[in-house]
Write a structure and sequence with these properties.
heterotrimer; A alpha+beta (320); B mainly alpha (549); C mainly alpha (239); B: 549 residues; mainly alpha; Cytochrome C Oxidase, Chain A; two-stranded antiparallel ribbon; 15 helices; 1% strand; C: 239 residues; Four Helix Bundle (Hemerythrin (Met), subunit A); two-stranded antiparallel sheet; 3 strands; elongated
Chain lengths: 320, 549, 239
């Protein structure tokens, strides 16, 4: 009868799905049986006991045994179903410690995801197969709900709070997710795809640092240039804690007017601050120390994606 | 099938009274200022059925929008915003203007005092005030639709409802007023049942209709004030930003849901108990057999009312309530299934070895048994925690509540309308046509809502304007089903209205019912009974008597 | 299926009570009518309690959310008397309402013993006391407006408030105005009802056989008083 299950339920994308589908089908067949127990007499009795003038009906007011049976019987059944549901739910409710955590920010009417390494994407997310992943979610405006039908998970997203779901995807490929708490005009447009990759493909995906940056490099929006992306990165990655952009000195040199100028180092020499210099400063900051500053900058080797590096360079260049 | 309906000859030899409650006084004022529960019942009937028409039109618009991805109705483009208003108004009108006030205000108002052998309800003027409050609420609600409309869903969840534009404040004020109408009706019925029973009628001699309506009234007075204050808080949040539901200023959006569902879950029992009340009259009458398990039925009604207050959290399993609350509410929800099951089993057993005829009211009663059972069983899927996570907020929930509210309450309401139509109007409707409407109703209802279970389990969320292509065939099926429902209702209206063209010559007791309303003329005289009836037998006693009146 | 009938309208009267003009005919006796009216009033009171109850619950939840702000905000409801902060207006209002409940009881009692003039007197005193309550309320509210202690978004107190940038004070005053305001509306409605009763008493509508409206409004008034008895410590005595 698996065809029936497959017709009624979405594809089974996670370990949860198998278990929940099993409960669902069990309840389905139970319901069919109970329904027939009501429907068959409802239709049969009017025929079997159809009206005959003068017939006297028995005066059956109650039958204690029967009534007790059909009160206690269903009660026991209900208790059983309750515990069965509880069992499944408890697994859903607590994420395992080793689950990869992805931050979700929902807002009207799109999804923002952030990986542990800071990469961000919009509406399009990849996860590795057979590894538990948990989503820690909040909203920037009204209630939303993250629902991945194939995984059989769903939870409301509440402004001012964090809520969580988790699952272990077991099937490669694209699975849709969608908002499941009414949130206004484009509620039904607030969806995306969750792609389950094998390890190689997932690693490739992570290298790109997500998809958010793409809008700044495809030239479609004049307000989204690589330099704008660089500014965002400047704030997100924390460059701004040591470097100002207004010409004032901080723990590190200001970026204003640096690009293309001659920079004096603490060993007396001067170098041209070109693209290579900027990139070297990020990866090997101890190689050249600017005069008047301490050698305290940490390296960003391995911490910056290519698009971030490119963006920062563009940004610094724009700060003439 | 042999006809079981007695002919125009009246039981006993009482002459038909020339004056009855309909024609004794005439003119607009005699209706507008009436304190006769029967006239008030008729006015409520007209009002709530008009609201049903309005809510039904919104439903048809919703289904038409969902017919194709183009979202065009007769060439006109329906935008997402308009669609959101359609489903919000459909819900709000149906819940607050129709289903909560309809049976209590119309059928119960008419029949309850008669069943108790009383001349009127305890507070006739309050009864009229209830009706006028309903009218005021209706005008406010309609105004809010015309001025700006609402798109929050009938549940008004915050923070969307406190920040969206639209006439939310006016609509919630309308619901506040309608709430008081409901409270006063409930208050009236409780006092009536306690104080105005005929001599000889103890609590366990009352018809089960009265027990179920009494239970409904209990919920009305205990739960509705909480809705009232919730709406006041919502309005104040919108206008003054008091900071109770808005997290940006320190409030908790989930708190609104707790307040809201604390009323709204008991409210769904305000909706179903009157339906069950009607079924408890139809089945023994058309089976010509005493109801099985009278006491269990009475206790089941009251326990449904009481247990309904402690399960509200099952609307919030994924809404952010605590894990402990989630577990407790799921457990309690299973408890509430038992009394409902007991009632269905008792009704079936009543039919066993009965002497059954299938007039229109009985066909609707049988439809109720099947449709309500499906509705109730699908509630189990939702009360079970693991499956609820997948099914909540999807079309599965939409199908579930339509099966219980529409397959349950509305089916029973229509059955009751046919049943008491001769009593209220003095006319018999065309029986064959009535039976046809019942069959079409059953087909249309299932065609509309059965596919929606599948849409839900396959992952389509509710309140969705756009949907994945794979869902379209089921949506088309469902929309066509909605037209069949429309056809059935249109036919029922035609059948009932057509009967009014005949002279008022219905017998006192066309169905052979045992309750007291059938002991007076059809339609009744203004004072209900010529002489105070005194009860001398058990309820639903079909044993042959040595002496008839 | 038969019922026998008895004819309670025995020709010549309705038992002992020579047809009271207030007897509504769907009731068999005046006593039944009175009992039913009383039951109806109690049912209405239940709904009122649930209405206010919701607000009390809301207040409790918000108090849990902002414990320090709420405690501090309470101080603003007190008045400075000889250097000490005491809830003068609140206490005054409590006394006024308690006395008015007593005068109400006396009024109902006077009606029950056919003392029309006394009934009117007590009703008028009750009304005056209620007006005093509302005047004190007006003074309180005026002070709050002056100090910017307003609900929600309108909160604008120039601040000695200890905790900056929190919404707790605004929420407190939102609930303060909501609950005392709702109560005040009930007092106002009560004044209206009492006035109507006074007029009817003067007209001679009531006597020892029929004083139901007095009894019911008395009940209403006691509930209004009782709700204040809960509001008073909640708002004025916590520190």
């Amino acid at each position: 009868m698996d065809w029936l299950r497959a017709w009624m339920m979405p594809p089974q994308g996670s370990a949860f799905a198998k278990e929940i589908d099993f409960v669902y089908m069990a309840l389905f067949w139970l319901s069919v049986v109970l329904f027939l127990m009501i429907a068959i007499p409802s239709v049969y009795f009017p025929w079997r006991y159809r009206y005959k003038r003068g017939r006297v009906t028995p005066h059956q007011t109650h039958n204690t045994t029967l009534e007790v049976l059909w009160s206690v019987g269903p009660l026991i059944l209900c208790v059983g179903i309750f515990f069965w549901g509880l069992n499944g739910w408890m697994k859903y409710a607590v994420a395992p410690g080793e689950a990869m955590e992805i931050s979700v920010t929902a807002k009207q009417w799109l999804w923002q995801f952030e990986y542990p390494d800071g990469s961000r994407t919009i509406n399009d997310i990849h996860v590795p197969i057979n590894k538990p992943v948990k989503f820690t979610m909040t909203s920037e405006d009204v209630l939303h709900d993250f629902y991945v039908p194939d995984m059989r998970v769903k939870h409301d997203i509440i402004p001012g709070r964090y809520t969580q779901i988790w699952f272990t995807p077991t099937v490669l490929g694209k699975h849709n997710f969608t908002c499941a708490e009414y949130c206004g005009k484009d509620h039904s447009g607030m969806k995306g795809f969750l792609t389950v990759d094998n390890d190689t493909d997932f690693a490739k995906w992570m290298e790109t640092g997500g998809t958010e940056w793409e809008d700044y490099f495809n030239g479609k929006d004049p307000k989204k240039t690589p330099a704008d992306w660089g500014k965002i990165t400047y704030e997100r990655v924390g460059c701004n804690s040591c470097h100002n952009v207004d010409g004032t000195k901080s723990k590190g040199p200001t970026w204003k007017g640096v690009y293309g100028s001659m920079v004096e180092l603490n060993n007396g020499t001067s170098v041209l601050a070109d693209e290579a210099y900027v990139k070297e400063s990020m990866m090997s900051p101890q190689a050249k120390i600017v005069k008047g500053f301490e050698p305290i900058m940490p390296t960003f080797q391995g911490l910056l994606k290519q698009n971030q590096i490119n963006g920062l360079v563009a940004y610094i260049e724009s700060l003439k | 099938m042999e006809s079981a309906v007695t002919s125009g000859a009246r039981i006993g030899d009482r002459p038909r009274p020339k004056k009855n409650y309909l024609n004794e006084t005439k003119g607009f004022k005699s209706w507008a200022l009436t304190v006769d529960h029967k006239r008030i019942g008729i006015m409520y009937l007209v009002g709530t059925l008009t609201a049903f028409l309005m809510g039904g039109i919104f439903a048809l618009l919703v289904r038409l929008t969902l017919l194709t991805p183009a979202h065009k109705i007769f060439g006109l483009q329906v935008t997402a915003e308009t669609y959101n208003r359609f489903f919000t108004l459909h819900g709000a009108v149906m819940v607050f203007l129709f289903i909560i006030p309809s049976i209590p205000g119309s059928l119960t108002n008419f029949v309850l005092p008669l069943m108790l052998g009383a001349k009127d309800v305890a507070f006739p003027r309050l009864n009229l005030a209830s009706f006028y409050l309903w009218c005021v609420g209706a005008v406010m609600a309609i105004s809010s639709m015309i001025i700006g409309a609402v798109d929050t869903g009938w549940t008004f969840y915050t923070p969307y409802s406190t920040t969206t534009s639209g006439t939310v404040t006016l609509m919630t004020a309308a619901v506040f007023v309608l709430g008081f109408s409901s409270i006063f009706t409930g208050l009236n019925f409780i006092a009536t049942v306690h104080k105005l029973r005929a001599p000889g009628m103890g609590w366990f001699d009352m018809p089960l209709f009265v027990w179920a309506m009494y239970s409904t009234a209990l919920i009305q007075i205990l739960a509705t004030p909480v809705l009232g204050i919730t709406l006041v808080l919502l309005m104040l949040e919108r206008v003054f930003q008091i900071g109770i539901f808005d997290s940006r200023i320190g409030g908790d959006p989930v708190l609104f849901q707790h307040f809201f569902w604390f009323y709204s879950h008991p409210a769904v029992y305000i909706m179903i108990l009157p339906g069950m009340a009607i079924i408890s009259e139809l089945i023994p009458t058309f089976s010509r057999k005493t109801i099985f398990g009278y006491r269990a039925m009475a206790y089941a009604s009251v326990s449904l009312a009481l247990v309904s207050f402690i399960v509200w959290g099952h609307h919030m399993f994924v809404a952010g309530e605590s894990e402990l609350a989630t577990v407790v509410f799921s457990a309690l929800t299973f408890l509430v299934a038992i009394p409902s099951g007991v009632k269905v089993f008792n009704w079936i057993t009543t039919m066993y070895q009965g002497n059954i005829s299938l007039e229109t009211p009985m066909l609707y009663a049988i439809a109720f048994l099947m449709l309500f059972t499906i509705g109730g069983l699908t509630g189990i899927f939702l009360g079970t925690l693991s499956t609820d996570v997948h099914l909540t907020d999807t079309y599965f929930v939409v199908a579930h509540f339509h099966y219980v509210m529409m397959g349950g309450t509305v089916t029973a309401f229509i059955g009751g309308l046919y049943y008491w139509w001769p009593k209220m109007t003095g006319r018999m409707y065309a029986e064959r046509w009535g039976q046809v409407t019942a069959v079409i109703w059953f087909i249309g209802f299932n065609a509309t809502f059965m596919p929606q279970f599948i849409l839900g389990s396959r992952g389509m969320p509710r309140r969705y304007y756009n949907y994945l292509d794979q869902f379209q065939p089921l949506h088309v099926f469902s929309t066509v089903g909605s037209w069949i429902i429309g056809l059935s209702l249109f036919m029922t209206a035609a059948v009932l209205l057509a009967s009014l063209r005949k002279p008022a010559d219905a017998p006192d007791n066309p169905w052979g019912g045992t309750t007291l309303e059938w002991q007076t003329s059809s339609p009744p005289i203004t004072h209900n009974f010529e002489e105070q009836p005194v009860l001398e037998h058990e309820p639903y006693d079909y044993r042959p008597k040595a002496v008839t009146h | 299926m038969s019922t026998t009938t008895t004819d309670v309208h025995a020709h010549g009267g309705h038992g002992e009570d020579a047809h009271n003009s207030h007897h509504q005919h769907h009731f068999a006796t005046m006593e039944q009518q009175f009992d039913t009216a009383k039951l109806g009033m109690w049912l209405f009171i239940v709904t009122e309690i649930l209405l206010f109850g919701g607000l009390f619950v809301g207040f409790g939840l918000m108090q849990h959310q902002y414990p320090r702000e709420f405690i501090e905000a309470h101080e603003h409801l007190k008045q400075d008397i000889f250097g000490r902060l005491v809830p003068l207006y609140g206490t005054l209002n409590t006394m006024v309402l308690l006395i008015s409940s007593w005068t109400m009881v006396m009024g109902v009692n006077a009606a029950r013993t056919n003392q029309q003039k006394k009934t009117v007197r007590y009703l008028v005193i009750t009304i005056l006391l209620a007006c005093v309550f509302l005047c004190v309320k007006y003074v309180e509210y005026a002070h709050k407006f002056h100090d910017g202690l307003l609900p929600g978004i309108f909160y604008a107190h120039q601040s000695e408030d200890l905790i900056k940038g929190t919404h707790g004070y605004a929420t407190f005053f939102a609930f303060y105005f909501m609950m005392t305001g709702l109560h005040g509306i009930h007092v106002l409605v009560g004044i209206g009802l009492l006035s109507w009763l006074a007029v009817r008493t003067k007209r001679g509508d009531f006597n020892s056989e029929y004083y139901t409206p007095l009894d019911l409004v008395g009940l209403y008034w006691h509930v209004v008083d009782m709700i204040w008895i809960y509001l008073f410590p909640l708002y004025y005595l916590i520190s």
